[in-house]
């Protein structure tokens, strides 16, 4: 029960496919007490998903691209518990124009929305943790998609993830003074609602089939959830500013190891 006594704020649950949902379930199984926050438009779905967790947690509606909502969320969590030991950032959104089409033609206003929601909101959550942390040992965890290079798809969301990686390093720098950790998990591709909004997402799945040394199941977000629980726990007490890859080892390979099953089948025709 590595999370016994930990009070965690979990953002980003919209249904039981959400990586945040798997993390919430695992965290409860490992002893944590939870409060969820949900994007107001997704609140009804989040409530439905929350009812299927081992213990139904309270849910607070918050649009984390809004400073006012972030401040209200901080106030609500303070009213509920007074203190907070950890938070999961599982939030991303980009208008379609930022996810596909001519990269350099994406409207700047759409990029602002993507950047604010997917990268700047991590700093908002960091402020909540800083303000409510009971002392050294609190932990902020975010979800990344490896931004070391350009993907064949993903466009400006890749840029937002590169920004998120940088934001994480600065948050780790500043919160480290208070003994608070900040880390990201770079997950492999997983079937979620957010993923279904990425045009040509199947190209990423094919890439994983060809290159990941470990078998990668895009229907299973629990390996990511388990890593998040490790990062919330005291077992990770000396880790901060890190990007932990939970991707079957994809990132460590220099190229494809085998022909992807789907591509091979297509080539047979
Ligand atoms: N699915 C993947 O393949 C994959 C891989 C690596 C990283 N990630 C990351 O995991 C995180 C969670 O995504 P997911 O794949 O579980 O999808 P998901 O659709 O289940 O979760 C995305 C969440 O973001 C929330 N959200 C969007 N805009 C918001 C806002 N302004 N304020 C508050 N919440 C907002 C949505 O309500 C939703 O709950 C994202 O950061 C995503 O980029 C996903």
UniProtKB/TrEMBL annotation:
Biological-process GO terms, alphabetical: fatty acid biosynthetic process
Classification via InterPro entries: Enoyl-ACP_Rdtase_NADH, NAD(P)-bd_dom_sf, SDR_fam
Pathway assigned in UniProt: Lipid metabolism
KW Oxidoreductase (keyword) present: yes
UniProt GO MF annotations: enoyl-[acyl-carrier-protein] reductase (NADH) activity
Keyword Oxidoreductase among record annotations: yes
SUPFAM superfamilies reported for this sequence: NAD(P)-binding Rossmann-fold domains
Keywords for the protein's UniProt record, in alphabetical order: Fatty acid biosynthesis, Fatty acid metabolism, Lipid biosynthesis, Lipid metabolism, Oxidoreductase
PANTHER family in the cross-refs: ENOYL-[ACYL-CARRIER-PROTEIN] REDUCTASE, ENOYL-[ACYL-CARRIER-PROTEIN] REDUCTASE [NADH], CHLOROPLASTIC
Family membership: Belongs to the short-chain dehydrogenases/reductases (SDR) family. FabI subfamily.
Name the record gives this protein: Unannotated protein
Organism of provenance: freshwater metagenome
